[in-house]
Amino acid sequence: MTGLIVLAIVVVVIGYAIFIYNNLVSNRQLGQEGWSGIDVQLKRRADLIPNLLETVKGYMNHERETLEAVTNARAAAQAGSNASPEERAKLEGQLTGALGRLLAVAEAYPDLKANTTFLEFQGALQNVEDELQLARRYYNGAARNLNVAVESFPSNVVANLFHFAKMQYFELENPADRAVPSVKF
C-alpha cells in the first residue's frame, strides 16, 4: 500500500512538473510572438519613412538637418534589428523623436500641410504607431507572464532546471521619447 502511495505522489509531481514546463514553453512562445509583432510594425514604419521623406523633401529643401536626422535614425534602427529589446527600444525611441521633429517642422509649410500625399503618409504613419503601441503592450504582457513563471515557486525550479530565462521588457529609456510631439494643422 505504501508503495502505491509513493508511486501516486511521484506521478503527481512528475505530472505537475510537465504542466509547469509546458506552461513555461507556452509563455516563451507568446513572448516570441509578441516580439515578432513589434518587429513587423517596426518594419512597416521603416518602409513608410522613405516615402514620407520624399514627399516632404520637395517642400522643405533647407530643412536638411531634420531630414538627415530621420534618415540616420531609421538606418540605425534597421541596423539594430537583431538587438536586444532594451537596445532596440533605444534605437526606436531615437527614430520616434526624429519623426516627431519632422512632423513639427512640417507645420511651417502650408502647401505641405495641404498635400494629399503627405496627409496620407502621415495617417499611415499614425496607424503604424498605434499598431506598434499595441504590439509593445502584447509583448510586454507576454514577457511579464514568463518572468512571473520563471521567478515564482514552484515553477522557478522547473525553469532553472530547463534554463528558462526572463525576457526583457520593451521600454523607452529617454522620458522625452514618451512625449507625443505637438503637431497642429
Textual characterization of the structure:
With 185 residues, the protein is mainly alpha-helical. The chain has helices spanning 2-57, 64-79, 85-106, 110-114, 116-151, 155-161. It has one domain (10-178): Up-down Bundle (de novo design (two linked rop proteins)), CATH 1.20.1440. Helix 1 runs antiparallel to helix 2 (64-79), helix 1 runs antiparallel to helix 5 (116-151) and helix 2 (64-79) packs antiparallel against helix 3 (85-106).
From the structure above, extract its key features.
mainly alpha; 6 helices; 0% strand; de novo design (two linked rop proteins); 185 residues
- Tell me the helix content: over 70%
Per DSSP, the total helix count is 6
What is the beta-strand fraction?
A: under 5%
- Low-pLDDT runs: 180-185
Radius of gyration using CA atoms only: 23 Å
How many domain modules? Answer: 1
The mean pLDDT is 85
What CATH architecture do you see? Up-down Bundle
CATH class annotation: Mainly Alpha
Task: Please outline what is shown here.
The protein has a single domain (about 10-180), classed as de novo design (two linked rop proteins). The chain has six helices and no strands. It has helices spanning about 1-55, 65-80, 85-105, 110-115, 115-150, 155-160.
